[in-house]
UniProtKB/TrEMBL annotation:
Keyword Glycoprotein: no
GO MF term list: phosphatase activity
Name by which UniProt lists this protein: Response regulator receiver domain-containing protein
Lineage top rank: taxon: Bacteria
Amino acid sequence: MIDPRTPATLLVVDDSATKRYLLVSWLSRAGFTVHEAETGGEALDRLLELEVDLVVLDVKLPDMNGFEVCERIKTDSRYGVLPVIHVSAHAVDVVDRAQGLNRGADAYLVEPIEPDELIATVQAVLRYYRARRRAELLAERMVKLAEATLAINSAPALPALLTAAAEGARAIFGVPVAVVAETSEGESLAATVVEDTSPVTVRRWAVSGPPVTVGSLVRSDEPADWDVIDWPVDETVVAVAAARLRVDRPPVYVAVPGRSQTPGFPVLRQLSQAVGAAVEAQRSYDDEHRVAVTLQRSLLQSRLPEVPGLNMGVLYEPAGAQTEVGGDFYELTEVGDQLLVAIGDVAGHSLHAATVMAEIRHAVRAYAIEGHSPGEVLELVNRFMRAVLPTESATVCLLTLDPATGRIRMASAGHLPPLVHADGKVRFLEPRGALLGITAPRRAEVEFVLPPGGTLILYTDGLIERRDADIDEGLQALAACAAEVEPDLNAFCRRLHTRLSGTGDQADDIAVVAVRRTL
């Protein structure tokens, strides 16, 4: 790392032993580390072996002139960005000085050279180059910081977020890294990475040290305090950036070797703030998701009614772990001597959608218990929604089933068509009606008889809809998959889910209800 307090290393190139001795003496007394070369070829070779910050180069050399050597240094990437100061043992005209500067030299001194002038010129050129290197390094790191921030904010879960932060920090600083944060459950995780090709490791590890107030800071810790990672043996200081966004939230930490940092720690500090903001967003999401899932599962039936003459099976599968919960629901309740069956889907995916789902489900059950028919229940629920939930919408399929006769009365509010498997055949029913939440004509009822051995299947759109396929393809796939129905209806529902949804993360909740008449 570039540190202006570190003495610079110079290479003096001159074929005159006396002149070379004077230059080396003046520069050494000024605090520089100085190496020597007698010819241009020797100088080019030594520059590949040594870490040199500046070259003091004579114009007249026995094997090649200084202009050519300078041009080689400036155009060959093996030498990096290296400043060159020309010195000449005799007076030269303006054309020669211009040629030297045009071919890459940063300064041109002509004898007689005063020691103070030489030292001042070297210091001025070094200041410029060090400032330039710091600016270039900062610009490069800022670009990588932007890339790392994007990866951090795209991570689907905290372990992946910490992994992205560790990989990003390694790409920025090129050194071992440790990133530490707490989950919403209070478990402290550390993501560490050492070598350029090694994978990131995430494990439990807690930071010990002074408390961190709200805001951000960078402190210097002992490597032993961060034994979660093997630091380089010569590392004496670990730079630790801590960011805390809220007083009721724990801080996040990003730790790197101190030697990797520029004064003020601008990039390290910004990286820790980006990690802190992303972790806070992840924690907030996890809190809402956990509450929503708990609420949604608490609203689903844990036990189905036992109705003579009927077998029932259900499946509820929430969307992928990092997708907000939706408003899918089902209801199977005995109302008098009949079975009330409902399935629905509230628009949206959020804690709010889950609460709206609960209100609609309770309203459906309450109106049905009052003795209203399925079509009347949907009309009453629609009025309720337009009065209490005017911005919401939902689809519902609702029916009553008489176990003794198999008679079904069904009404639908924009829901997908139920499927009937009977006598070895599969067919879709077509109850029609507008979804709930809008002004629309009354939803008509459909009546039919489910024969003994027949199975009625209701489902939500997550089972059949895919972004890359038409919905008709999903309906056809469902009909083909339901051509056979297992004796165990729960197993049948699971097979439908496995066959139709695949093994990847699903984008929507799925609810399936199957009812078979056995009499």
